[in-house]
Specification:
- The two termini are 37 Å apart.
- The chain has 5 helices and 46 strands.
- The longest helix has 14 residues, at 569-582.
- It has 4 domains: 4-22 and 402-567, Jelly Rolls (Sandwich); 54-249, Sandwich (Jelly Rolls); 255-391, Immunoglobulins (Immunoglobulin-like), CATH 2.60.40; 570-655, Immunoglobulin-like.
- It is mainly beta.
- The chain is elongated, with a radius of gyration of 28 Å.
- The strands form 9 sheets. Strands 3, 4, 27, 28, 30, 31, 32, 34, 35, 36, 37 and 38 form a 12-stranded mixed beta sheet that branches. Strands 17, 19, 20, 21, 23, 24 and 25 form a 7-stranded mixed beta sheet that branches. Strands 5, 7, 8, 10, 13 and 15 form a 6-stranded antiparallel beta sheet that branches.
Length: 656
C-alpha cells in the first residue's frame, strides 16, 4: 500500500492509496514500484530460416482439433476464407469483415485470418454479439489448447509466432502439457497497462521448456489471463491476437535487443546517490540541458537476449548522428549464455558511453546488437532508433508530437467532474532554477479553462514502501486561450523554484472543477516503471474508485505527460514585469483587509477563490485603488483574479 503525505496550503492530507489507472477505467493497484519492460523495440528481426516442425496459419479457420476450455478464442477471417466466422470482434471488428482493414496484426498471412481473444468484446454491456451471448463476465480469462504435437525427435525447439497484444493488467502465457499432464508455464506478454494508442505487435520467439521437448504427445495452451493479476491481484482486460505459429529447431546463433535507453536506467543509475530525501532511479530523457549533461553524460543501455542454442559473445553497437557530427562505438563484449529454460540467464544488460560532444541540437541514435565467433559476425539484432535533443534550458521525457503535429493522446485535468494533478518524475544532476513548466494544451480543451503548474518534492524517508511527495510550489492560475489549443505554452512561476542536485521532483499541471470549461494535457510516450507518471485526484472525484470516494488519492498512469521543465531565466522576469505593471495587492499577508492597486485606470471583473478553487467573493473594479474585505473568511491562501475581455491576471493573497 503506497501512502503519500501531501502538504497543500498548510493543510496536511494523508492519502492511503496509490493506484494505477488507464483511459478506460480507474482501477486500484496496491503494488510496489518496479521497473517494467519498456517494449521500446518490436524486435522484427530476421529469424534464421528453418523448416518448421509444426505450423498453423489458420488458413482453414480454427482447427477442429483445438479445444476452447474457457471462454472461446475465435477465428477472424474474410468472407472468402474457409470456415469463416464473420461478425464484429470488440473494438477491432474490421470493415466488411476484412481483418486487414481494422485488425492491425502484421502477420504475413493476416489476410487469411487469425485468432483473437478479446475480453472487451465478450462483455459487450450484456448485448448479444456475433460469437456469443455477450454475457461473459469482464474481465475474464481465455484458454485455447492445441492438438497433440510430436516432438520426440528434437532436443531444442522454439515457438515462433506473430502476436498483437494490448492489455490493461492482463497477461499472456503458454502452458505446456505432455500426455495431458501440465509441465510448465511460459509468460509471453506482461501486464503492459498500455493505453488505446499503444500495443505490442511483434514476432515472438519462445523457447520450449526442456521438460517438454523430446516427447511425442505435446500440447500448447494459449492463455489470456484477465481475471486476476499475479503480482497485484486486480482485474485486467483487452485482447490478444496471434497468427503464423511455427515450431522450429532453435537456431544455434541468434541475438535480440530489448528495452533500449540512453539515460542509464538499467546500470548507470547506481552511480548516482540521492542527496535529498529520495533515491535516484535513473530515467530516460528526450531533451536534456547542457547543465544536466555536465554531471550525467549519456549512457546507452540495452538488454541483449540470446535466442539461440549456443552461448554468444555479444556487444551493443551504436551510431550517433546530428548537430555535433557522427560518432560510433560499442560496449565491451559480454557472454550471453544460452539454455534459458534451464538456468534463466539468457539475457544480459550491457552499456556503452557514447563519445558525444555537448553541442545544442538534435541527434539520432541507432542501436543494435551483434554476436560473433572468432571475430566473424554470426548474428545481428534489429536496430532501435532513438531521437534525443541537447538544449540550453529544456528538460523533457515526452516524445513530442508526431509527424502530423499530433500527440499520442491526452488526459483531462479539469472539467465538470474532474480536478486532477497530472505529474511526472524528474531527477536532478545539477542545481537549477525552474522558471516555468512548458506543456502541450490539447485542442480538446475549452478556451477560458484554468490550469496551474505544480512542483512536488519526493520524500522516501516517509515510513512506507514507496515514499511520498510534498507540495513545493505552484504557479498562478493560467487561463487557456484559443491560440493555446494544440500548442505548447509556458506556465510561469511568480518566482523561480530552486531545484537541487541529487533530488527528485514531481512536476505537472493541475486543473479545476468547472461546470462548462475543460482542460486537457497532451500525452506522448509510455512510463518506464509504475509510478513514473502520476495523477492526484484532489477531492476523490473518481467515480470508478468507490472505495476512495471523497478521499484525495494518487494513481499511477502509464502515459507520459507532455510537461517539460524550463530553466530559461528570461521567462520569469518578463512575466513578473508585466504583472507588476497591471496590478498589485497590499498588505500581503493580510488580516483580511487589503487593496488592489492598478497600474492604470481600467475595468476588471474580480473574483476571489479559496484553496479548493471555489469562488468566495466577486466584484467589478474600475479605479486605481479598490478595498477588498475578507475579514469574515477563514485563514488561508486565496487567489485574486482580474479578468477583462482580453486578459486574465492572478495573484495569491495570504489571510492570517
Amino acid at each position: 500500500m503506497k501512502k503519500i503525505y501531501i502538504s497543500i496550503f498548510a493543510l496536511s492530507i494523508t492519502i492511503s492509496a496509490f493506484s494505477q489507472i488507464d483511459s478506460h477505467a480507474l482501477t486500484i493497484e496496491d503494488g510496489e514500484k518496479a521497473k517494467k519492460n519498456l517494449a521500446l523495440n518490436s524486435n522484427k528481426f530476421t529469424v534464421p530460416s528453418s523448416i518448421p516442425i509444426w505450423s498453423e496459419d489458420f488458413a482453414n479457420g480454427l482447427p477442429t482439433t483445438w479445444e476452447n476450455s474457457i471462454v472461446p478464442w475465435v477465428y477472424r477471417g474474410t468472407s472468402t476464407s474457409p470456415s469463416n466466422q464473420v461478425g464484429g470482434q470488440g473494438a477491432y471488428s474490421g470493415i466488411n469483415n476484412n481483418p486487414s482493414t481494422n485488425n492491425p496484426i502484421s502477420s504475413p498471412t493476416a489476410n487469411n485470418g487469425f485468432l483473437i481473444f478479446d475480453s472487451d468484446y465478450y462483455d459487450n454491456n450484456g448485448v448479444a454479439g456475433a460469437f456469443g451471448t455477450g454475457n461473459y463476465p469482464t474481465p475474464h480469462n481465455g484458454e485455447l489448447l492445441t492438438e497433440m504435437i510430436d516432438l520426440s525427435s528434437y532436443s531444442d525447439v522454439t515457438l515462433k509466432m506473430n502476436s498483437y497484444f494490448r492489455t490493461y493488467a492482463g497477461q499472456a502465457f503458454i502452458d505446456f502439457y505432455v500426455s495431458g499432464v501440465f509441465q510448465e508455464r511460459v509468460q509471453v506478454h506482461t501486464n503492459l497497462a498500455v493505453n488505446e494508442s499503444s500495443f505490442v505487435d511483434e514476432v515472438i520467439l519462445s523457447r520450449i521448456p526442456f521438460s517438454v521437448v523430446g516427447n511425442a504427445d505435446v500440447q500448447m495452451s494459449f492463455v489470456f489471463e484477465g481475471s486476476t493479476n499475479s503480482n497485484n491481484n486486480f482485474s485486467g482486460y483487452y485482447f490478444w491476437q496471434m497468427d503464423d505459429l511455427e515450431l522450429i529447431e532453435t537456431p544455434l546463433n541468434m541475438i535480440e535487443i530489448e528495452d533500449v535507453v540512453v539515460g542509464g536506467f538499467w546500470i548507470d543509475y547506481a552511480n548516482y546517490t540521492g542527496t535529498g530525501l529520495n533515491t535516484i532511479i535513473g530515467l530516460d530523457y528526450t531533451v536534456t540541458p547542457l547543465s544536466q549533461l555536465a554531471n550525467h553524460p549519456y549512457v546507452i543501455e540495452g538488454v541483449l537476449r540470446n535466442s539461440g542454442a549456443n552461448d554468444q559473445v555479444s556487444t551493443l553497437k551504436y551510431e550517433v548522428y546530428g548537430a555535433a557530427g557522427s560518432y560510433s562505438g560499442t560496449s565491451n563484449p559480454t557472454n550471453v549464455a544460452a539454455n534459458s529454460a534451464i538456468n534463466n540467464i539468457d539475457s544480459m544488460v550491457v552499456a556503452a558511453n557514447p563519445s558525444l560532444s555537448p553541442v545544442v541540437g538534435n541527434y539520432g541514435v541507432s542501436i543494435w546488437a551483434e554476436s560473433d565467433s572468432s571475430g566473424v559476425i554470426i548474428a545481428t539484432s534489429d536496430t532501435v532508433i532513438k531521437g534525443i535533443e541537447i538544449s540550453d534550458y529544456i528538460y523533457a521525457k515526452d516524445n513530442g508530437t508526431d509527424i502530423n503535429g499530433d500527440p499520442d493522446g491526452n488526459w483531462i485535468v479539469g472539467g465538470p467532474d474532474d480536478q486532477w494533478h497530472f505529474t511526472t518524475r524528474f531527477e536532478m544532476y545539477a542545481d537549477e532554477q525552474l522558471t516555468s513548466l512548458r506543456t502541450y494544451i490539447s485542442d480538446e480543451s475549452v478556451a477560458g479553462a484554468e490550469i496551474k503548474a505544480v512542483v512536488y518534492e519526493l520524500d522516501t524517508t516517509i515510513s512506507n514502501a514507496d515514499g511520498g511527495v510534498i507540495l513545493l510550489n505552484e504557479s498562478d492560475n493560467y487561463t487557456i486561450t484559443t491560440q493555446d489549443l494544440g500548442a505548447w505554452v509556458d506556465i510561469v512561476f511568480a518566482d523561480p523554484v530552486d531545484l537541487y542536485n541529487g533530488y527528485a521532483y514531481e512536476v505537472g499541471i493541475a486543473g479545476f472543477v468547472h461546470p462548462t470549461d475543460s482542460a486537457f494535457i497532451g500525452t506522448s510516450g509510455q512510463s518506464m516503471y509504475n509510478g513514473e507518471h502520476s495523477l492526484f485526484d484532489e477531492f476523490g472525484l473518481n467515480p470508478n474508485d468507490v472505495v476512495n470516494q471523497g478521499i484525495p488519492t494518487w494513481y499511477y498512469l502509464t502515459r507520459t505527460p507532455m510537461v517539460r521543465m524550463n530553466f530559461d531565466p528570461s521567462s520569469v522576469s518578463s512575466v513578473s514585469d508585466l504583472k507588476q505593471s497591471i496590478f498589485t495587492t497590499y498588505p500581503n499577508p493580510t488580516n483580511g483587509l487589503f487593496i488592489i492597486e492598478l497600474g492604470e485606470i481600467a475595468k476588471y471583473d474580480v473574483t476571489v477563490n479559496n484553496a479548493l478553487g471555489q469562488i468566495v467573493f466577486s466584484t467589478t473594479i474600475n479605479g486605481m485603488n479598490t478595498n477588498i474585505d475578507l475579514l469574515s473568511f477563514d485563514k488561508g491562501i486565496y487567489t485574486i483574479e482580474l479578468k477583462n475581455e482580453k486578459e486574465v491576471y492572478t495573484e495569491k493573497v495570504i489571510v492570517e
